[in-house]
Amino acid sequence: MHAADEDGEVSEPQIVSLVVLLIVAGHEVTTTVLGNTLTYLLTDGRDTWHRLGADEDLAARAVDPLLRGIAISDRDVMPGFFRRAVEDVEIGGVLIEAGSVVAADTMTANLDPDVYPEDWREHPFTPLTTPHLAFGAGPHYCLGSWLGRMELELALHRLPQRLPGLRATVATRDIAWRRGLLTRSPELLPVTW
User: What is the residue extent of each domain of the chain?
Assistant: First the structure.
């Protein structure tokens, strides 16, 4: 804000747009990631839940494997993030011409067995040898990725530490999902402890 006031190169509408983007993206993605992660941990990932509560270091190690494996996108609504090719590029023997619009499905890329041979569910605490794409890449890499990781790490340890008996009261198949243009998460996750 001060820099914009000093040099005048950033307009007020640009600042407002940036603030809205940061708040909406930070809130939307954080609640989606946490909701989807809790859905997994309180149903199919019970063993991982108990281990996270017992060891704070495991929570830090679990963040990236969980971000890689648990989708936040609503693949039924949008097949990926839309991008425009800035130059001709060949991928898998297919020429994508400059100016073409493509859908980049980061979830499928995050589950590519040639890149990630281990199942994230069987190895939730194993550090990744290749970065995941949950936060995007290149010029579209999420500005708040560090904050998202920190929030998830804190939740992954403190919730199971304080509520080790927390569990979902419904099966995953019975959860109603909030559907949107970019994300998908539980509308409600009934739990007990």
Answer: 2-75+119-192
Taken in order 165, 147, 180, 17, is the CA torsion positive or negative?
positive
Q: Which CATH class is domain 2-75+119-192?
A: mainly alpha
Neighbours of 13 (CB within 10 A): 8
Contact 166, 159 (CB under 8 A): yes
* The pLDDT of residue 106: 86
Please write the tens of the pLDDT for every residue from 121-166. Answer: 999 999 999 999 988 888 888 877 888 899 999 999 999 999 999 9
Helix (H) or strand (E) holding 94: strand 94-96
3-state secondary structure 131-156: CCCCCCCHHHCCCCHHHHHHHHHHHH
